[in-house]
Structure formats: structure tokens, C-alpha cells
Write a structure and sequence with these properties.
Elements: E1 3-7, E2 10-12, E3 18-25, E4 33-39, E5 46-51, E6 58-60, E7 68-73, E8 78-83, E9 92-99, H1 104-107, E10 115-116, E11 120-124
Parallel strand pairs: 2-11
Antiparallel strand pairs: 1-3, 3-8, 4-5, 4-9, 5-6, 7-8, 9-10, 9-11
């Protein structure tokens, strides 16, 4: 059984920063691409960022480019999402997910992922 556990969410003021972590257990982490999605109340889950198994390729939603950075540490079975210059519209539950794919076609879509975490809440408000 694969388990993904997110942490690092919280309340932050506009312009602030947070770093989310996602710890993966239960299988070989280094062979999976990893992604972050978010879902605000009443909205569909949307793609935020993805990283291939080697970390050599990353992809971002236009809305977070230049502000968010995805990275991974395969020695710790952990993927990170550094979020800078946060805006109120970034408020959402953030989910990490593991995928068998490396293509951006699949990594940009929720159905491209096999395993999901429970989510961590990020609230950006003054």
C-alpha cells in the first residue's frame, strides 16, 4: 500500500511563503513522477506542478510560474513545493500525488496519477 502524507500548510499573509512537503512510503518512490494539485471550495481540482522521477523535468501551471518551485529528494522519499509571493487566490487544499507517467500530458491531469495524499490546507489572508 502506497501512502502519501502532506505537511506544511497553514495560514499566511499575502506575499508570504510556505513550503509543503509530501512523504511517500510503501513502494519505490524514485521511479514515480510526482505532482501537486490544489482544490478550492466549489472548484475542480487543478494542476499546480509536477516533477519527473529524476528531477530533471518540471512543469508548472501558468498561475504559479515564477512563484512556486517543485523539488524532490529521492534519498528521503519526499517531494516539496516551495511557494513564494502567495496570493489570496492560492488559498486551497493542496494534494500531492504519484504517477507512473513522465509525459506532461498525463502529469497535468488528475487522472494521470495513481496515488493521492489526504491534502493540507493553505490559506492566504491578511
Amino acid at each position: 500500500q502506497v501512502q502519501l502524507v502532506e505537511s506544511g500548510g497553514g495560514l499566511v499573509q499575502p506575499g508570504g511563503s510556505l513550503r509543503l512537503s509530501c512523504a511517500v512510503s510503501g513502494r519505490t518512490f524514485s521511479s514515480n513522477s510526482m505532482g501537486w494539485f490544489r482544490q478550492a471550495p466549489g472548484k475542480e481540482r487543478e494542476f499546480v506542478a509536477a516533477i519527473t522521477w529524476s528531477g530533471g523535468s518540471t512543469d508548472y501551471a501558468d498561475s504559479v510560474k515564477g512563484r512556486f518551485t517543485i523539488s524532490r529528494d529521492n534519498t528521503k522519499n519526499t517531494v516539496y513545493l516551495q511557494m513564494n509571493n502567495l496570493k489570496p487566490e492560492d488559498t486551497a487544499a493542496y494534494y500531492c500525488a504519484a504517477s507512473r507517467y513522465a509525459s506532461s500530458y498525463f502529469l497535468g491531469r488528475p487522472r494521470g496519477y495513481d496515488y493521492w495524499g489526504q491534502g493540507t490546507q493553505v490559506t492566504v489572508s491578511s
